[in-house]
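Much of what follows relies on a compact textual record of a protein's fold. Here is one such record, which you should read through line by line:
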Amino acid sequence: MTKTKTHAAKGGTSTVTTHPDPVVNLSDQLFALWNADDASQIEYSSEPAWERAGSDIQQQFGDWQQAVATIISYTHATSPAGALVQLALALDELDSLLSVDVCGAEERQVRQLRGVDEHRIERLIRSAMRAVQKSLGTEFESVRGIVQIYASDNEESWLDDVPKWAQEGRVARQREGG
């Protein structure tokens, strides 16, 4: 489903792979910003210049990441991969609505919006994400990196085991004569 174009560039050629979904293409750019931010911190963290400009560089990368994420929020996804990227960004946005309240040695999340069950919203989004991810098959690899950044723990869930547990419970109840 992706298209590969080779462009002649000064000093050589460059190959660009594009996806027909504009959200996936934008997510590639967003992922590149995350990678560049990480690499700049690794490369310059021990340099004296980082002490002078490091926070400015990090702020600029953060601004760029937010700008691309905002553009993605206005862009219509045209594939399950694009929808998965938008779900991951929605989950990250939901997480930013929460504050962390420190009580002794443990941290707990506190709702900021009255009457909003953020845990229900999170479960619904994660469930939709898992369904979309499963439907993608190997195409998931095209968005894996950015999804892992914005929805880091979307892999397995105990909810995935509920149907198996229900079946085991029915079998056990039938053995007991119930």
